[in-house]
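Dear H.,

Thanks for agreeing to be a second pair of eyes. The structure we're designing against is below in token form, covering all 182 positions.
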């Protein structure tokens, strides 16, 4: 049923409703499309026996960088998916400030990555699943409650939540199984 204002033409109301839905549906599909790209990055990490977390950074509706966890590969505690993607984006843009960029990551960023996101001036962060043990956007900490920061980020979670959560759960289940077998 289409809601319309008193005196408004029914056809105009229906068209307005369709445009609003279409805009929302397109926006949702775009977010899911970018999150699927982040999931592809997570699968790359899994193939290297890294915790499967992936990230993409988007500017002007174009992916400008990608990253996945490489802590074990690089023997570097800072080689999280977000940091890898931020480094690549900064290099591509020739600037440490990633103004008007959006970051899509499969799991809620940790405190270190959230700090890098804030420092790099990323505008929006979209994540798949919350990280109850280490997430610093909303789970363990809520970074936007820190009032004296010079930059705050827009946060939206739950994009392809189950897919993003399942890849990590399956990875750790496999690790536990192999540990008990070995």
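And this is the sequence the design step returned. I haven't edited it by hand at all.
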């Amino acid at each position: 049923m289409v809601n319309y204002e008193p005196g408004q033409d029914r056809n105009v109301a229906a068209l307005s409703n369709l445009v609003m839905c279409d805009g929302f549906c397109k926006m949702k599909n775009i977010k899911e499309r970018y999150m699927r790209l982040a999931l592809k990055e997570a699968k790359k990490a899994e193939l290297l026996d890294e915790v499967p977390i992936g990230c993409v950074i988007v500017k002007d509706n174009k992916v400008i960088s990608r990253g996945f966890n490489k802590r074990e590969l690089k023997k570097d505690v800072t080689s999280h998916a977000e940091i890898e993607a931020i480094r690549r984006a900064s290099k591509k843009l020739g600037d440490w400030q990633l103004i008007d960029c959006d970051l899509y990551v499969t799991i809620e960023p940790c405190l270190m990555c959230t700090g890098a996101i804030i420092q790099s001036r990323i505008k929006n962060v979209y994540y798949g699943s919350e990280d109850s043990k280490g997430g610093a956007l909303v789970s363990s900490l809520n970074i936007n409650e820190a009032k004296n920061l010079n930059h705050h980020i827009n946060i939206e979670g739950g994009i392809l939540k189950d897919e993003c959560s399942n890849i990590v759960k399956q990875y750790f289940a496999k690790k536990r199984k192999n540990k008990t077998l070995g």
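Two observations from my side: Confidence is low (pLDDT under 50) at residues 1-5. The beta strands are 54-59, 62-68, 101-107, 124-129, 154-156.

Warmly,
E.
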